Amino acid sequence: GGTKKSKLTGISKLDDANFAGTAKSKDCTLIITEGDSAKSLAMSGLSVVGRDYYGVFPLKGKPLNVREASHKQIIGNDEIKNVVEIMGLKFGTKYDETNVKSLRYGHLMIMADQDHDGSHIKGLVINFIHHFWPSLLDVPGFLQQFITPIVKATKKKKSKTFFTIPEYENWKESTGNDAKGFNIKYYKGLGTSTSAEAKEYFSNLDLHEVHFRDLTSDVATPDEVRSDEFDSDDNMDIEPSSTAAPLKQVSGNELIEMAFSKKHVESRKTWLNNMAKDTYLNYSNAQKDGVKFSEFINKELILFSQADNQRSIPHIMDGFKPSQRKVLFSCFKRKLKAEIKVAQLAGYVSEHSAYHHGEASLNGTIVNMAQNFCGSNNINLLTPSGQFGTRRMGGKDAASPRYIFTKLENITRKIFHPDDDALLSYLNDDGLSIEPEFYMPVIPMALVNGSDGIGTGWSSSVPNFDPRIIIENIRRLINGEDMEKMSPHYHGFTGEVVEETGKKAGSYSVKGRIERTNDTTLLITELPIKKWTQDYKVFLEGLLTKDDKNKSAELDIKDFKENHTDTTVSFTITATKEKIDSFEKGKDGLYGKFKLGGSISTSNMNLFDDRGRIIKYSSPESILQTFYDLRLDFYCKRKEHLLKILRREMRMLSNKARFVEEVCSGDLVVSNRKRADILADLQERGYETFTKDDDNKSDGDESDEEDENVSDAELAKGYDYLLGMKIWSLTYEKAEQLRRELEEKKQAVKDLEATAPSAIWENDLDDILDALDEREIAMEAAEKEERKAQSKNKKRQAKKAASKKKGKKKKDEWNSSDEDSSEEEASDSDSEGAFAPKKKAPARKRAPYARKPAAKSNPKPKASTPVEKVDLADESDEELDLMARMKQKLHVSPAPKKKAPVPAPLDIGEDDDDEVESKSSSTSSAASKGRKRSSPRQGEIEVLDVDDNEEVPAAAATKASRPTAGAKKAAKKAPAAKKAPAAAAKKPAAKKKPAPKKKKMVVDLSDSDSEDDFNESKLGFDEDDDGSEDFAPPPPRARSGRSRRQVNYAMDEESDEDSDFSDFE
């Protein structure tokens, strides 16, 4: 404990009173505040009363509940230690009015917000003092509270403050005009008050300082804990969540212990169920006589407990907690069909639904409503556009709300039907219409998405269930059949959920998936529900760590590998055969050893019902039965509402049709008449007025003349649907159209009258099933595409590895399979979609086409040295060096300047083998009229070059210029033809020289590779490539100075010229 010191040091944020710890300490007051902002308010107020007798110390959050904490927790809590030292308290000491003078402060004042959380902080401080020094609560005036306004009404220079919302509501009602003329300001916390207002508070301490009365004489009367008795339902599966006897007459001591002790859970449930309606603590009476501890517990702290349960326990109808309901209400109000940042949506929700808590919590609520990974929602109501979390970390890996977007899912409005909106009971917050008490979805979302929550006295845990099975059971109830038993179901879970026999009803065992693939390998492909991948990885890492107590023991596993994605699980574990054999023989086998088992229970399904009571439901069928009864009755209300709307539209159409007909016939004149005369004429003819209910308002303070003006305005507004019609509508055709529409409305009314409410429900169920089908088709398509991409990636990696291996073993050999794999890799990249970057495989990178050399006489090709094989699938430094060596080996000698026709090139991409032979024979025939060429040796590449400006026989020129079928397309993008010399222009067969075509590499097929292999695009280029990506590089001399010289290959299927290997020079 602490000791009485006149000066304390080392306690951060303490502003000590000047007389604390002195002879005047009994008159000093320590103000403990709710956070730093509240301390700033107190410090502003101390400028009025001075610092001699008042000290201030801020608390960090809510104090510890010492009644349920361990000794280690208590002595390790900085807040408790600081308060004890500042006050000079000693544990085990019994204080009275005499020895209280030994304390550094004679009074302890609590300064917290006037909201429910502020009441909880007051209660925790009371619990702290009562647990260790209960006698201090009998010392007159020792414990006090500083109350601040929660509402302030100002009119001109007069103001009135209210410390509770019910006080303000009662006053507003008493004014008779809804407090018109007053400026109303709500104080959401102490931080809302200004420094000037703080000085005003401390200038009127008698109004704001309230002391607690002594504890010994404090006894609660029966009327303080009365309420309506619980009405039991006929359904035996539903029971009130408390079975303890109602509290009658209890002391303040008992109430404090009941409110904060775990031993009195059932008593707290009864206490909350017995809460009277409109309960609140009236501080206007307490300011004089003080507050009894029993009054504070029964009339203020109970409101926090009730609010805590409402924030934590969902409703049976929509399965929502208030924050979720506010989010959905705001999305509906905004008609959120376009994506919006989560952070922006949180701000919109705060503004339009009066959310009074931190937006960080609201951001988390929005993210949770959009999550769709296994273990989260079976039906996410918001779209997760961005990283909203995965099963890897259970959603904790979600991105910042500033970076992710969301909108309403298409299925959301199928579940929360717009036709129900007008029938809901909406709440009101200071004149602002906010979310309803609860929504009426078509299916019970409390079962679809489940929930978990811990409140005061209650907790709730409802598993997820299959929406399709729920819909089937609703249809059975509609048809008067018995429901089928429902078991927990989580979308995407591939393990087992089995009801346990011989145990308490509603107990289910959950198993992941593990299999032994061989003697030393295990494969885990599923984890129990809500066991996240990252957590399980930590567990497996623990199996790889030796125990400190027995470091010589053999490890359970040797290693594990991870191959899972954000949606799937895949752990491959290796261990010795003996170890795996022992695991299988152990308790629960492999599932027990690797903790792949779990449990789900339906024994704690506590939900708020439509009357605001917390009810415990013993089975999901009992929840569905309660939902069915309420929802079917609501469908009856919806049918009546829709009929009312249709009949209203019928009357409006009838009036409009009659109006148009009378104007067209001249029976009713509306032009060149006074407004009042027209309105009177319409009234006399019996035309109905149609106005909105919220437009029918009048102020009681206005004069009779003003009332008449308002009445005239309302009358004109009521006839606006007639007088506001466009002139073009005043035709006989429009009247006939209106009559047709009227008949359609009449038929719609007849159809709806003949439709049973249950039939309307079944139509809505069909719409949900259609939406579920669409979602599942989209998900399956995405999963299929992912598997396809994974398969292609594995195949590509395997081929790449094989290519590298072959390249190292046989660098000097040509391997056609490597080139084939390069082509396949290139084609695979086109279908990877969003699963891999769309980039071409290395083999698909085409070198720039070689520049066309200056026209020369045709050189005779000379047999060249055999070319070493280059693997185009890899661009490593080793292979670039290989290309350089190949360049040195290549040597081309000029051919004799003997004229000869140009042989037709081998078309690799388009022509088959027969066509190649045909072209070869044609070329041989034409060559008889000109020069002959020498044949290259087997295994060598024949290189031909033709001078563009050389004279060529007409027949050969015509044949050589005739493009193949595949070349016509590429010819469109060929470079412009050069002008021929004058001598060439005289030739009649070559009046216009065609555009020079790209060079082509002609390969002798006498190599060991077959012609079929070569036709499979041996060089790694696509058959359908039309050469659209060709471009001309700078001249070779412009490349000097580069660290590595690049080897360029130029090839085109339709070229009638041969490469001269100029790129290697």
Automatic annotation (TrEMBL):
Residues 690-700 have a biased composition (Basic and acidic residues). GO terms for biological process: DNA topological change; resolution of meiotic recombination intermediates; sister chromatid segregation. This is DNA topoisomerase (ATP-hydrolyzing). Residues 850-866, 919-928, 953-968, 977-987 have a biased composition (Low complexity). Residues 313-765 form the Topo IIA-type catalytic domain. GO terms for molecular function: ATP binding; DNA binding; DNA topoisomerase type II (double strand cut, ATP-hydrolyzing) activity; metal ion binding. Belongs to the type II topoisomerase family. It is an enzyme of class 5 (isomerase). Residues 790-809, 837-849, 886-900, 988-1000 have a biased composition (Basic residues). Residues 701-711, 815-831, 942-951, 1051-1065 have a biased composition (Acidic residues). InterPro entries: DNA_Topoisomerase_II, Topo_IIA, Topo_IIA-like_dom_sf, Topo_IIA_A/C_ab, Topo_IIA_A_a_sf, Topo_IIA_B_C, Topo_IIA_dom_A, TopoII_euk. Keywords: ATP-binding, Coiled coil, DNA-binding, Isomerase, Metal-binding, Nucleotide-binding, Topoisomerase. The keyword Repressor does not apply. The active site is at residue 403. Its EC number is 5.6.2.2. Residues 636-663 form a coiled coil. It catalyses: ATP-dependent breakage, passage and rejoining of double-stranded DNA. Pfam families: DNA_topoisoIV, Toprim, TOPRIM_C. Its cofactor is Mg(2+). Residues 28-144 form the Toprim domain. Residues 690-711, 781-1065 are annotated as: Disordered. One of its GO terms (cellular component) is nucleus. The keyword Metal-binding applies.
